[in-house]
């Protein structure tokens, strides 16, 4: 029952978004030639087929429909629609995804925090919360994170963190604490600094895994290829710059890697992909 309700709600939400986009553009459904969607969590052909069928029911039969993982449209937003290279997304969650010149695909991370996406916003913040509890228990060193996070949440004691965390353990709610971790690291807190260093290393390793599986770096490891970097964790523009630290590590592994911060939204990447699919 819950699964059916969730799917119905997702479909209704999708239809509403499409209707709003058509109204804003001044076109109607009969004017559309192709639809490309980037959807988080679409990792299996059955997921793709289900959403494609939803979209086909919303449009006339002549409309071509393409459903991709959101990482693919993010890659396209940095390569102007070309599916070659690697994309690293680090926001609430994280994933690395790539294509070689022959269209072979590979991915790393993206399994959620339970399966170890520690470079994500959730992963960073969860480790910070754990550090506060460990310090309070006497199992770990004292950290500036304690006072900073308690103040940000309006709590008076680390004991209250347990109730706050499990009252609504949504990923985005936890990940929203990343700025506090960054500010503590900038102020010299060693625990916070280590959390961010480990996150940068983990994100760079995800890119490394994809690049090596696809051979994007060439036989000698120096070939040029794009690495598109997307997400609030990578583009926060703070003094302690996680994106810059990740880029440095990627370039240590692969001197030919060209890190790119897209100048357009992933939605533009989806539009470029739709155009490319229609013309191919």
TrEMBL record:
A UniProt-annotated Pfam family: BcrAD_BadFG
Enzyme class: transferase
GO molecular function: N-acetylglucosamine kinase activity
EC number assigned by the record: 2.7.1.59
InterPro entries from the UniProt entry: ATPase_BadF, ATPase_NBD, Euk-type_GlcNAc_Kinase
Domain ATPase BadF/BadG/BcrA/BcrD type: 7-274
CDD domains named among the record's database cross-references: ASKHA_NBD_DdNAGK-like
Family: Belongs to the eukaryotic-type N-acetylglucosamine kinase family.
UniProt name for this protein: N-acetyl-D-glucosamine kinase
């Amino acid at each position: 029952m819950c699964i059916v309700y969730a799917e119905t709600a997702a479909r209704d939400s999708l239809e509403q978004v499409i209707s709003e986009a058509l109204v804003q553009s001044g076109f109607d459904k009969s004017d559309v030639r192709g639809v490309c969607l980037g959807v988080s969590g679409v990792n299996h052909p059955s997921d793709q087929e289900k959403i494609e069928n939803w979209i086909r029911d919303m449009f006339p039969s002549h409309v071509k429909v393409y459903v991709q993982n959101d990482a693919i449209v993010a890659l396209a937003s940095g390569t102007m629609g070309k599916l070659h290279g690697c994309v690293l997304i680090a926001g609430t969650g994280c994933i690395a995804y790539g294509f070689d010149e022959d269209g072979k695909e590979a991915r790393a991370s993206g399994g959620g925090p339970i399966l170890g996406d520690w470079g994500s916003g959730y992963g960073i913040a969860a480790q910070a919360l754990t550090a506060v509890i460990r310090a309070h228990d006497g199992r770990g060193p004292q950290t500036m994170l304690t006072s900073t996070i308690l103040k940000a949440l309006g709590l008076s004691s680390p004991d209250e963190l347990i109730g706050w965390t499990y009252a609504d353990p949504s990923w985005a709610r936890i990940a929203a604490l990343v700025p506090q971790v960054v500010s503590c690291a900038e102020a010299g807190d060693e625990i916070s600094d280590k959390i961010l260093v480990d996150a940068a290393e983990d994100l760079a390793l995800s890119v490394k895994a994809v690049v090596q599986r696809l051979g994007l770096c060439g036989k000698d490891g120096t070939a040029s290829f794009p690495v598109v970097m997307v997400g609030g964790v990578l583009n926060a523009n703070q003094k302690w710059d996680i994106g810059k630290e990740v880029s440095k590590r990627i370039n240590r592994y692969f001197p030919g890697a060209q890190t790119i911060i897209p100048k357009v939204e992933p939605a533009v990447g989806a539009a470029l992909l739709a155009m490319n699919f229609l013309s191919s």
